Each structure stands twice: as C-alpha cells, then as structure tokens.
C-alpha cells in the first residue's frame, strides 16, 4: 500500500475566516505545513507520493524543488508528482527537481477525453510517467447519467458489457482505462469494499480494440476522421 496525498490549494471555509478567496500556494512554508498536516492526519512518518494539486499562475519551480529536497532529506516524502498539469508545466518543474516526477493525476474517463485530445497522454507515454486518472467513473455520471452525453456513453459501455457477458458496468469502465498503453492508474472514489473488490477484478478482463473505440467514439460524439 502506498500513501499518496496532494498539497497547494488554499480553500475558503469556516475554518479560515480571514481567507477571502480560494488560491494556490506553493511556497516552501505552505508545502511543508501541508505535509506536516498530512502526516498527522494519516498517522504516518512518511508519505509515498506528494502531488501538487493544480498548476498555478504564480509558481516558482526553483523554490518547489528546494522544498522537495528538504522533505526528501528529512525522510517525510519519498516521491513527487503533479496533478492537472499540462506537459509544459510539468517540464518546467522537472527542469529544477532532483528526482523524476512519478505521476500526473489528471481527469481521464470515457466521459472526459481531454487528455487524449490535448496530447498530455502522448507526452506522459514519451516520458514513461504513469498517469493517475481522477473521477474514472466521472464521479458517478457514467453509472447514473444526468446528461445526454453520459447516457450516450453509458449505452456504448452497456453494449460492450453485454458482449463480454459482464454484469458490472464499473469493471468495463476500469478495463477501458487499464487497457490504454499509457498505464493509467484509476483513482477510484468509492469507499465501499465490495466496489473496490470489483474494481480490482477488472484487471482480469479484456476488451477488444474495437470495443475500446466504440466507447471512445460514443464519448467523442462523432466518427473518427
Ligand atoms: N486531482 C484532482 O484535481 C482531483 C479532482 C477530483 C477528484 N480527485 C480524486 O479522485 C478520486 C475519485 O474521484 P471521484 O470520487 O469523482 O471518483 P469516481 O470513482 O469517478 O466516482 C465516485 C462515485 O461513483 C460512485 N460509484 C462508484 N462505484 C459505483 C458502483 N459500482 N455503483 C454505483 N455507484 C458507484 C461512488 O458512490 P459510492 O461512494 O456510494 O460507492 C461515488 O459517488 C477522489 O476521491 C479524489 O481523491 C482528484
């Protein structure tokens, strides 16, 4: 088991009455304070992977890299990654960090094709960086769609599930992610043990390339050129 957590977003809430807006903070002091808080919350001595939650318009990669080195030498963090970064933003940080960044946690699902289309996945493949996919089931939209697009994609997934004699729709969605050559690691949102077990079993199934594309094309909403 590995512990992975994120840092960098300052939220507004009743806990922070003096904070007027939500903003991002990648200063050394804030990253370190968030790590200390995570160690406390998770009751652990170290974090396996620390992610920067979102790219920021105010970002000093040199300061972040120095902070990573400090956290590494104190034994509090083993590896680093990013989340929601585009290739150039990842490169900019990587140019300063000692250790290679190990992941980019991005939204990927049969509902969200953004990172297939903006070449982020091609970039991660070229760097041999495994992406993590947040909201792999589109936060439930793919199981209980509220939009026309969600219904369209679910129908394609159901068709493939029927062909594979697979009663679990979620397994088919996870397999769609796992089949991709970029080695996607789904970050599943459920805390229900039976659903987690089902997710693990999706490693044992396979779909054909044509079935993968049937789901992709349903999400795209048009034929490929
Ligand atoms: N990096 C980022 O910017 C970012 C942004 C958003 C999220 N995340 C991360 O990604 C994680 C996953 O996101 P997510 O929660 O949107 O994930 P998700 O797995 O796409 O959706 C989870 C939702 O689907 C439901 N669900 C799962 N399996 C189901 C099943 N078999 N049948 C019916 N409902 C099912 C869950 O309900 P139950 O709980 O009832 O099972 C939950 O409401 C989050 O916990 C967070 O750590 C990261």
Account of the 3D structure:
With 225 residues, the chain is of the alpha/beta class. 42% of the residues lie in helices and 15% in strands. It contains 9 helices and 8 strands. Strands 1-4-5-6-7-8 form a 6-stranded parallel sheet. The model has no long low-confidence stretch (mean pLDDT 97). Residues 53, 83-84, 105, 134-140, 143, 170, 187-192, 195 line the site of NADP nicotinamide-adenine-dinucleotide phosphate. Residues 5-215 form the NADP-dependent oxidoreductase domain. This is Putative oxidoreductase.
Major β-sheet profile: 6 strands, parallel
- Helical content stands at 40-55%
Beta-strand proportion = 15-25%
Uncertain runs with pLDDT below 50, 5 residues or more?
Answer: none
Radius of gyration: 19 Å
Distance from first to last alpha carbon: 43 Å
Structural class: alpha/beta
Shape, per Cα inertia axes: elongated
- The ordered string of helix (H) and strand (E) elements is EEEHEHEHEHHEHHEHH
How are the secondary structure elements laid out?
Layout: E1 4-7, E2 9-10, E3 23-24, H1 28-42, E4 47-52, H2 61-73, E5 77-83, H3 87-94, E6 103-107, H4 114-117, H5 120-126, E7 130-134, H6 148-163, H7 169-179, E8 185-187, H8 193-201, H9 209-220
Parallel strand pairs: 1-4, 4-5, 5-6, 6-7, 7-8
Antiparallel strand pairs: 2-3
Helix pairs in contact: 6-9
The structure holds NADP nicotinamide-adenine-dinucleotide phosphate (NAP).
NADP nicotinamide-adenine-dinucleotide phosphate binds near residues 53, 83, 138, 140 and 195.
């Amino acid at each position: 088991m590995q512990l992975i957590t994120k840092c960098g977003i300052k939220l507004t809430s009743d806990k922070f009455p003096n904070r007027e807006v939500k903003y991002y903070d990648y200063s050394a002091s804030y990253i370190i304070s968030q790590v200390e808080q995570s160690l406390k919350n998770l009751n652990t001595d170290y974090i396996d992977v620390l992610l920067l939650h979102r790219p920021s318009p105010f970002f000093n990669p040199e300061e972040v890299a120095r902070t990573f080195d400090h956290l590494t030498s104190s034994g509090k963090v083993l590896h680093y990654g990013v989340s929601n970064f585009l290739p150039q933003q990842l490169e900019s940080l990587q140019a300063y960090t000692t250790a290679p960044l190990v992941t980019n946690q991005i939204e990927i699902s049969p509902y969200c094709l953004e990172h297939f289309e903006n070449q982020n996945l091609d970039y991660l493949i070229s760097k041999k960086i495994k992406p993590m996919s947040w909201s792999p089931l589109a936060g439930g939209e793919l199981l209980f769609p509220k939009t026309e697009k969600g219904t369209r994609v679910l129908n394609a997934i159901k068709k493939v599930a029927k062909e594979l004699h697979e009663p679990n729709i979620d397994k088919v969605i996870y397999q769609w992610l796992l089949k991709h050559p970029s080695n996607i690691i789904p970050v599943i949102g459920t805390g229900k043990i039976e659903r987690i077990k089902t997710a693990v079993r999706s490693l044992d199934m396979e779909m054909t390339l044509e079935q993968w594309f049937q789901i992709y094309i349903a999400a795209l909403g048009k034929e490929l050129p």
